[in-house]
Write a structure and sequence with these properties.
With 346 residues, this protein is of the alpha/beta class. It has 2 domains: 14-211, TIM Barrel (Alpha-Beta Barrel), CATH 3.20.20.10; 226-317, Lyase, Ornithine Decarboxylase, Chain A, domain 1. It is built from 10 helices and 19 strands. Strands 1, 11, 14, 15, 16, 17, 18 and 19 form an 8-stranded mixed beta sheet that branches. It has a 7-stranded parallel beta sheet with strand order 3-4-5-6-7-8-9. Helix 5 (107-114) links the parallel strand 6 and strand 7. Helix 1 (14-27) packs across helix 3 (46-56). Catalyzes the interconversion of L-alanine and D-alanine. May also act on other amino acids. It holds the Pfam family Ala_racemase_N.
């Protein structure tokens, strides 16, 4: 059966992705630099992201759940995959059948995993109060006779470099680590790498920064990785005073040419960008007019007369600007990208 042509494209710049990883690897100094590829590679395709990053030299990958492991297929020799949500007793048979390790996060998980005799990672909560062993549990003898490869913690406020909790967590983690044998220590996420060498330890775990979000940890800027484009389904000319879209939230002040595109909030394009988003054609800006609906978004293409039905608009998707305009975090923007995009890797 012939496949119908796509109505929207998500283009992933793999060269930019690899370049961003190298920025974090360089900033990590002697520490190993891993990569968080959970949530389907932050919405961009976990298999393709993993292939790109391992080819660039990354040897530590992180997903959140065991259900994410199968999509990665066979990883190159020497690449280590860790599952951040740990392993309950029900997960252990699957965990033992594949080449991935759990990051144990509860006393019950530790007790269940001990029976396997296999190495693992362990997460210590030092102030985020999310997943991880409480310091008292970690130091109670619970971890005795457990072969810990990497001992982790996670920073709560690393995006705010001046926040006092960063140093508090670092010191707490250092004190705990001095009493628990482990081959390697890990604390810093993307923003945490920018806090400097005391936070790098043996392994860093960049995430959003790999995909072009957040701040660069050094002088080299991060490159955008994801780009969107959408097919124009219809072009319509309206007179001054005509309204556009649900709720009639936009009224034309001039003779206006509209392009209705196959893009909507079902594709992860935020409804909050109604009357605020933008596309462009050959550098000509085309403002979004009216409300973003489930499957359709309308742009003013009056100043881009060369557009035609069936052609594509490039949708502005700068992460920082789109986050500010929509009220969505950069994480939400990426991981919310829907399944209807044809993904292109270049």
């Amino acid at each position: 059966m012939q496949t119908p042509p796509p109505n929207a494209f998500l283009t992933v710049d793999t060269a930019a992705l690899a370049a961003n990883w190298r920025v974090f690897a360089a900033a990590s100094g002697p520490a190993d630099c891993g990569a968080a590829i959970k949530a389907n590679g932050y919405g961009l395709g976990a298999r393709e992201v993993a292939d790109t990053l391992t080819a660039a030299g990354c040897r530590d990958l992180f997903v959140a759940q065991w259900q994410e492991v199968a999509a990665l297929g066979l990883l190159p020799q020497g690449v280590r995959l860790a599952v951040l949500h740990g392993a309950d007793a029900a997960d252990i048979p699957f965990a033992l059948s594949i080449n991935a390790v759990p990051v144990l996060v509860t006393p019950a998980q530790v007790a269940a995993w001990k029976s396997t005799g296999r190495p693992c990672d362990v997460m210590i909560d030092t102030g985020l109060n999310r997943l991880g062993l409480a310091p008292a549990d970690a130091l109670s003898g619970l971890l005795d006779n457990l072969e810990i490869h990497t001992l982790h913690s996670h920073l709560a406020c690393s995006e705010d470099r001046a926040h006092q909790l960063n140093e508090t967590q670092r010191r707490t983690f250092a004190e705990i680590c001095s009493k628990i044998p482990a081959r390697r220590l890990a604390l810093a996420n993307s923003a945490g790498i920018g806090l400097g060498a005391p936070y790098h330890l043996g392994l860093t775990r960049p995430g959003i920064g790999l995909y072009g979000g957040g701040q660069s940890p050094g002088i080299m800027p991060l490159q955008p990785v994801a780009a969107l484009s959408a097919r124009i389904l219809q072009i319509r000319d309206i007179a001054p005073g005509a309204c556009v879209g649900y709720g009639a939230t936009f009224t034309a002040a001039r003779p206006t040419r509209l392009a209705t595109t196959a893009l909507g909030y079902a594709d992860g394009y935020p409804r909050a960008l109604s009357n605020h988003g933008r596309a462009h054609v050959a550098g000509i800006p085309c403002p979004l007019v009216g409300r973003v609906s489930m499957d359709l978004t309308i742009f003013d293409v009056t100043d881009a007369p060369q557009v035609a039905e069936g052609s594509f608009l490039d949708i502005d998707f700068d992460l920082a600007e789109t986050a500010a305009a929509s009220g969505h975090s950069e994480y939400e923007l990426l991981t919310g990208l829907g399944a209807r995009y044809a993904r292109i890797y270049r």
